[in-house]
Amino acid sequence: MATSNSAGAAGELPSGMGSVIAASTTGTAIEWYDFFLYGTMATLVFPKVFFPESDPIVGTLLSFFTFLVGFVARPIGGAIFGHLGDRIGRKSTLVTTLLLMGISTLLVGFMPGYAQIGVAAPIILSILRFLQGLGVGGEWGGSVLLAMEYGHRRNRGFWAAWPQVGVPIGLILSTEIVNIFSAQSNFLTFGWRIPFFISALLIVIGLFIRLRIFETPLFAQVKAAGRESANPIGEAVRRSWLEIILSAGARFVEQAPFYLFTVFVITYALTLDVPKATVLNGIIIGAIVELFTIPLYGFLSDRVGRRMWYLIGCVIMAAFAFPYFSLLNTKDTSLITLAIVLSLALCHAWVYGPQAALIAERFGTRSRYSGASLGYQLAAPFAGGLAPIIALLLLKGKTNLAAMGLKGTIVNIGKGSWQAVAIYIIVLAVISFVSVLGLKELSRADISDAEKVVAEPLVAME
């Protein structure tokens, strides 16, 4: 039976909220399973399968560049699906993004390697990664709005945090499945493809859940009144361009460090001769703890205020940068696990839990999907996809770009070190701290009216 779209009276648990949370979180988990699976394979497999003629460092860089393609596509996906979500509805758009992401991931599993079709292999791989990015770009905004627009009257930070929980779920699934199959002797020849095939089953589950829900109450009201925006992207940019830019800046403290904590850390551990399994197990434990800390921090942001909570999170992230690498450098399994768990369950979750509501509540219903998606996804190419590349260059200090077909043999950025990567994390935290200072506190604002949030941002909820 489909879920009712009644939001309930103020102060009450919205009707059917369990089904809504299941639909938004499950779909997000599947999409991030696909996205993270690619990121893990970009470190462990793709340099050997798709870039075998490069030296190890350049091969890893090239693999990370295909990883970057997905992040470049995310703002484009946010614009395309944000427009559709504000025009035709959140539910229909989310079904489309799930199919796009899932089919693209499945096709990666069928990809022949460089040995079979030469340079066409990494080119096709990049195209599929681009399609993945489009899907993720449109997924986040819809999933968050699905939860937030049902439970908008109270505890928005808590409800909107549940789609964020899909990230650690996807990370756990992808990491654990890679752990299982990477132990097989045929991993580099065929075993690496099986996790991509598993995506097909997850798509079916996600579609079954999402097709059983109704449109969100707030958008249903807009649609019933015939008040949909003819140009939601233009409306969002015209009315809230500063909020979009500051929202993107607010994500730097979360976006880049997360990929350093889950993707780059695998490469860094290999330079320390730390077993891959140690790092992957640490990531799984950290992600499991995040299942609880993300909604907890979202809930606490409703009490403390999202702006203040987020500013504190920026300070915590900056303060942990040097201790994080110091713990990794001990090469002690327990301390490495501690570093990874704290990086995810404390530093990342602290800002990621309230982030969805922090961004989405700044926009009116008519253009909320577009505005929130742009604000969230614009940070992706700069703070997400580039993060592992920048970190690797900072760590190595110099790299041979001639092997990538670029003029000039050496790019020298000084003596590489882990300290440079730690400073990079601190700079990211500072950027976000300054950005959040420019945002208004809207934790208690009434977002039920399409115009009220922009015109009267500090009106208390009923």
Tell me how many strands there are.
Answer: 2
- Beginning-to-end CA distance, first to last residue: 31 Å
Query: What would you say the CATH architecture is?
Result: Up-down Bundle
Which bin fits the share of residues in helices? over 70%
| Relevant CATH superfamily | MFS general substrate transporter like domains
Shape: globular
CATH topology: Growth Hormone, Chain: A
Describe the model.
This protein has 462 residues and is an all-alpha fold. It has one domain (17-455): Up-down Bundle (Growth Hormone, Chain: A). The chain is built from 19 helices and two strands. The chain has helices spanning 17-44, 46-49, 56-87, 90-109, 114-117, 120-148, 156-182, 194-210, 217-224, 232-250, 252-271, 276-304, 306-329, 333-360, 368-377, 380-385, 387-396, 418-437, 452-455, and strands at residues 398-400, 410-412. It has a two-stranded antiparallel ribbon with strand order 1-2. 56% of the residues are buried.
